[in-house]
Every structure is written in C-alpha cells, then in structure tokens.
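Can't attach files on this board, so I'm pasting raw text. These are the components:
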Amino acid sequence: MAMGSLWSYISCDCICLLSSLLYGSSVSDTVDRFFGENHFSTYLSHVVIHRTSKLRSVVDKAKKLYKQVKHKKQDKKKPMRFFSRKDTPEGHYESVLQELEQDIRMGQAEVSAPGKEVRAAFVSFKSRYGAATALHMPQSINPTYWLTEPAPEPHDVHWPFFSASFMQKWLAKILVVFACLLLTILFLVPVVLVQGLTNLPALEFMFPFLTLILSMKVVSQIITGYLPSLILQTSLKVVPPIMEFLSSIQGHICHSDIQKSACNKVIWFTIWNVFFATVFSGSAFYKLSVILDPKEIPVKLAVAVPAQASFFIAYVVTTGWTDTLTELFRVVPFMVSYIKRSFEPSDDNEFVVPPMRYHRDTPRVLFFGLLGITYFFLAPLILPFILLYFCLAYIIYRNQFMNVYAPKFDTGGMFWPMIHYTMIFSLVLMQAIAIGLFALKKMELATYLLVPLPVCTLLFNEFCRKRFMPIFTAYPAEVLTKRDWEDRNDPRMPEFYNN
Amino acid sequence: MAMGSLWSYISCDCICLLSSLLYGSSVSDTVDRFFGENHFSTYLSHVVIHRTSKLRSVVDKAKKLYKQVKHKKQDKKKPMRFFSRKDTPEGHYESVLQELEQDIRMGQAEVSAPGKEVRAAFVSFKSRYGAATALHMPQSINPTYWLTEPAPEPHDVHWPFFSASFMQKWLAKILVVFACLLLTILFLVPVVLVQGLTNLPALEFMFPFLTLILSMKVVSQIITGYLPSLILQTSLKVVPPIMEFLSSIQGHICHSDIQKSACNKVIWFTIWNVFFATVFSGSAFYKLSVILDPKEIPVKLAVAVPAQASFFIAYVVTTGWTDTLTELFRVVPFMVSYIKRSFEPSDDNEFVVPPMRYHRDTPRVLFFGLLGITYFFLAPLILPFILLYFCLAYIIYRNQFMNVYAPKFDTGGMFWPMIHYTMIFSLVLMQAIAIGLFALKKMELATYLLVPLPVCTLLFNEFCRKRFMPIFTAYPAEVLTKRDWEDRNDPRMPEFYNN
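---
Top answer:
Structure tokens for the assembled complex are below.
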C-alpha cells in the first residue's frame, strides 16, 4: 500500500501529545502500542520529538562564526564601511571551531539517549483517511491524556509547546485572555489623550502656557485635525506584535495558528479600542457603564456615532491612505534593514523574502469595512474616501502579494471565517445604530419595523455557520478518499472522482 | 470478520440522511456507492427506510379489531361492566378482517416499490471503530448533503423526521425556539395572578364583594399561604408535555434525544418562570428591564430574593413534599387508568409498565437544589424543609426506579451535563446575590473580594467542560477497539484490555 507524502497538504500525519506514560518506559513504546492497538488497520509509523535546544544553540553559534569568517574574507576586498570592527587573528577561529565540533558531537550523543524525548510524536498513517480518523476520534477515556492535532507543514512548526500538557495549555490560554483584557484597558490611555487633543479649550485650561502657540491657526489645525490620528496610529502599531507574542505563548504548535489567533485578537482590539473607545469618548468607567446597560446601547450609539463622523473621515485619510502607501514603499522595513546592515555587516546575497503579516493588515482592512458600513447612512461623505482607500488597497496589496511577499505557509482560506464574522458584526452594529436613531427621532413605527432586521442577520449568520463552517474545520471523507486514490495511482479509481 | 450485534449499545450502525440523490436513481444505490467508495475498508451493508404509514395504519386497525373480538369473547364470561356496548354480529368481523388482509397485501406491494423509499438509511459497518469513523468524519463537501447520526436503539426510534432535510430541521429548530419564548411570556399570566393573591388588600380593592369572605381568617390564610403555590403548580403541570411536544417536532430521530431536549427546556423554563418571575414580581416589562440592565442585577436580586423567602418555604412544603408523595402513590395515573378502563374495556393482562418521565421529574429536583443553594444564607430556615424533601425524594424515587418504572431507553448518563450546568448556574446566581447583598449593605471590601468567586466558578465549569464533556459526546477509540476485540472473541486480544 503506497503511503501519501509525509508532509503533504492534507497530511497523512497527525501529532499526538500525551500527558503521562502508560505502557512501556519510553514515549516511543507508548505511542507505538497505543496506535498499533487502537488504530491497527491504518497506523504506519511514528517519530518521537526530541528536545535539541542545546544542540541547536551550538549549531547556531557555528553558523554565526562561519558568517563572520566569510565576511572577514570579503572585507579584505572592499575595505570601506560605515563602522569597522577590530581584527581577530585567524588562529582564534580555528580553535573555537574545534571546540564547537566537540560540543555538537556531545549534544548528538545526549539527544539519542531516551531521557531527552519530549512527550509528543509525529504519527504517520497508511492513508489520509486513516489520519483523519485518528484526528477526529477521541482517543482515550480521559480526553486530556491523548491529544491529536493535524501535523503542520515542516517550516510552519512552532516547537516550544510540544512538551506542554493539557493543563499547561489551558492555563496559558486563560492567562492570555486576562492579558488581552488588561491590554485593552491600558490602551484607553492614548485614546483618552487623543480625545483630549480634539478639545482645545480644555487643553488650554490645563496647560495655560500653551495658549500662545494654540492661538496660531496652523498649529491648532494640526493638533485637532492630524495629531489625534497620528497618536492613535502610532500606538496601534504596537498592538499586532504584542498580540502575536500573546498568541505564541497560548499553546499553538504552528505559526499559522498563531497568526490566525493574533489576527482575531487584533480585529476585536481594533473594533473595541478604536471604534467604541473613540465613539464613547470619556472615562473608562463611562464605557463600562455602556456595556453594562444593553437596553440603552442603540440610543447611545445613535447619539455618539454621528458625532465622530469628521474624526473617522480624517482617520480614513490619515491612517488608511498613508498606511497603504507606506505599505507600497515599505518605508519602515527599508530603514530598519539599512540601519541594521550598517551596524552588523552581513552577506549581501543573503536576502530573505519577507512573509505577509496577516495579523497586521487584515484587521486594518476589516476596520475600514466596518467604518464604511456603519457610517454610510450617517455621514455619506465618508464613502468616497473609503472607496478610494479600497481601490488603493486592492492595487497595492495585489502587487505586494505577487511581487514582494513570499507565502510562509498556506492559509488554506482559514482567515475567511474571521472576515465573515466581522462583516456580520458590522451589519448588526449598523442596524442597532439605525434602530437607536429612529428611536431618538421618535419614529416608533420605523423603530419596531427595524427590529426583525438584526434578528434576520443573525439567523443568516447561523445558517452560514452550519452550512459553510464545517468546510473550514476538517476535510470531508469524499475529498480524503479521492486524494488517497490519486496517491495510489490506481487505474481502478472510480470515474466520478475525475470531475 | 464477525460483526457486532446490529442494535448493540455502542452500535456498529449509523443513520445517514441525505437531502438529494447523486449517483443512481434510487436511495439504496446512492448510499451503497457513497459508503462503498468513501468508507470501503469498513462499510458492510445498509437498509433503506421505507415510508409505511399506510401499512402501519392498516395493521393498527387489524390489531384493534383483534382486541375487540377477544374482549367480546371474555365479555360473555363476565357480563357486569359499568358501560356496556352494542353487540355486533360475528359475521361482520369476518368480512372486515378479509378487507384488511387485502389492504395489507396491497400496502406491502406498494412499500417494496422503489418510489416509497425515504432519503435515509441504516448503514452497518464491519466494526464499531468503522462506524465511529463514519460518524465523526464530515462526509461530503457540502455538509448539509450527508448527515450521519448514531443509530438509536430499536424501540427508541422516532420515525417522523427521517425524511426531513437539513433545512427543514434547521427551520423547525428556529420555530421551536420562538415557540418556547412565546410560551415563557404567556406563562407570566398565572404567575402574575399568583402574585396578586399574596397581596390581599389589592384583591379586596379589585373585587369589593369578596371583602366579607376575605375577612375570615381561615380563608385569608388559605388564599395567601396555599392558593398561590397550588395555582403555580397546576399550571406547571402543563409545561412538560408541551415542551416534549415542541422537542418532538424539532427534528430528533430518537425518543431519548427528545426527552433530553425537553428536559433542558423545562429546566430553564422552571428557573426563569418560577424563580425569576416570582422574585421580580411585577409586570412583564419590569422583568425585561431587569435583564436589559445587567449591572443592576445583583443589587436587584439582593432586594427581591430575600423578600420571597416565605413563599419559597411554603413552595417546598406544598409542591415538593406533596409531589414526591403523589409520585409514590401515582394518584393521577391511577385515576386516569381507572376512568379509561371503565369507558374502554381492554384485556386485564395487557398491563404496560410505565416509563420514567425524566423531563418532568429531573427539572423539579434540580429546582429545589437551586432554591437550597440560593436561600441557604438568606433564609436558613428553608434548609430543614429542603433536606426533608431530598430525603423523601431519595427514598421514593429509589423505590420507583426499582419497582415501578421500566426503563424505555438507556440514558447512558446523558442527563448528567444538564445537572452539572444547572448546579453551576445555581452557584453563580447565589454568588451574584451575595455580591448584591454586600453592595446593598455598603460593605465595599467584602463586595470586591467576592467578585473573583463567580469567575473561579465559571473557570471550574470551563475546566469540567474540557475534561469531562467529550466523554458524553462520543466513545473514544480505546473503548471501541476493546469492544471490537471482545466481539471477535479473538484469543490474541491484548492483555491490558482485561483490566
């Protein structure tokens, strides 16, 4: 029986993570016995994961040394650089390399010892169907004992959490949730600052010495029109890396999952901290009181959202347009790499193609979608600006995807559900604002007639969840069997699979 | 390869429901091709379900006729009955039976025709492991096309929804949710009536002619102390059958699922309509305003809940104690069956052992648990009454389970998650009331120190959901493979399975 490729896209592997040893003494024995007995018809083999951090650090050190030696030789050819380094005699490198070789040998010896095994293994199956079976079925009576996950692509693996048990991962997840809440609350500081800047008289009252400067028309225009967006945008730049870090300690075993989780966090953070925090400008406690009083939300939104229309139009121009344009020229990465090269000389041929950072750009595009949907009937003036933004974004991101970024992993369309849910949220929010607006203008009939609209939107969402969501969570038996037939190159493959 | 028993507890069957035909012209062909190709290693056979309502009605008619003829013969021996019937000549029965025989033959001929097939089939697999695989794995690219469900026990099957498509089931579910909401709102009428009765002056004001009667001490005691509970209890009796009916049109394919779903509905209906509606006595709109203002809930609960302590103590005595005692003597079923027998004479040997009605009794017991947990620190006087109730209930239900009821289906412990969730809800409610009480008494430190308590309860619930919930949803591979080994009676069965 032919085996599917080990690291194929619909993989024949899954990763099993076990929290304690059962049968034999080693992880390898336990995995082999468990899968050999419970999935005997499809189980093929397994590879236990070893902890090689020591070995890896030694290898990294050797690589760095090699780079230094290589660079030294090149330096002799082109002597001009911004910063030159002290010379070290070549005999020194030789002795260091010998030491490293010794270290690597010792590390390899240590790794092959059974004590270094991590309680996780890559398990291979005879067919994709078999792997999917092992993936979907609960393994043991205690569901925290054996965890199976689909094996990620080889360069997509995130190693640190292979040794984490169910409890550790669960605790990490809860801690991350609390950290996100804390970050959301702390972020209100720059938002409140932004709101303070749009209110010049209050600023003059607090800092009387500024009166002279603030009375200049240009300064006041910059401060009220441009500075708030700038501060907001600068502080927002910090959020995606923080969210990515939080997602990375959450227990995911591949980078694509981390990016997905970070993207989700950044979307809700942006919606809450940019949209709601700006709309309900005021103290944090006032914002809390708004959530805790859901009956009043539509009316409060109807009062607060239209008031911020001019701010958000400015936001589309300052943040949206400039962001897409800086994305085109990649100003920040260019400057960073220029400065880095001056300080740390490296091989010029060693150019790494940057990966797309979905968790930074997807929430931004979705946020402008939210602005467009919620403001189109309150302040239609926002529409041309947003239209221009989307046109720009389409052209520029299309170019970036084709010519600049190299995909680090296949997303498999996994970001689509997030986009769907954000759209549904935007629609329901818009409908809630419309209800609030009609209630505010004492149009009772219109208010009551609008109430079924969000209910219908939510029902539509529920239908989509039932009809389309399963496609995103697992491959169906039909697809798996078709792929298995193709792998076997069997001429008896049923005809209908060729459609 | 030996096959597991067709209707065993962990079944080798699953039911597939398909919404449209794909390959061949008949359902049987489609099922055979799909499972034969996509689950070729484990698929054994299938039985397509036929619509036999016409045949069944004819068979039922024949059975009834048989009963009548039999009863007629017995009647001749014992001529005394409350109500006698007109005699019919015996020749009449003969001609009717001949007609029926003809009908049954025609019905069978119709059923074997392929046009009468329903788009559902019982699919059998070579092993339990194979059946579980087909159950867990999504089948086709369109997830609404093939639905697989575990096959219920034979006498547990609920036939009407085998022909329903995914969309029909989904719409039925949404309609049932709206029906439940409507019922909850309509049920506020008797509750408001109950609340009116506890307020005698208002009653006297509304119906002045009652003043004379109400001034008698015995009458007023009965009206304020006993009548409210009686009205509430009588109207509550109607709820379980209604909820069972609603669950039965929701698309479930077995009676045990219907009972589970009805039990869930009755639990939340009881908690909302007896506990909350009584506590927040007043108009329906006032109650709505309470949910829509979650910040104020703890404080409002802290005011309203202690005020109803005496009502709930009376409720435990009148409803709890009397209910368990009537359960012991089964007064209502006894009277119903006595009256029924007088009107419709039947064979005395034909005694059907009644099944346990979980959806009627489980919510009641859980509700007294809720009362005990929420009132133990507000009105400790309720505790001895509840303790006595639980002792009585333990003894009586133990007896009923052992000597009176015959299990209609194996619940498989599936009611446990409901009990767990209700307990967690009771705990969080109690903690919310405690927080509200401390806030009301201006003990700020105690209030803030108590806030982490419900958070911890919810975290505990989340842990239990992760750790124990999977056991209730599916059998793990370990158990399935062990059962498969046992079925095969293979001497090579691994030793560790004998533990």
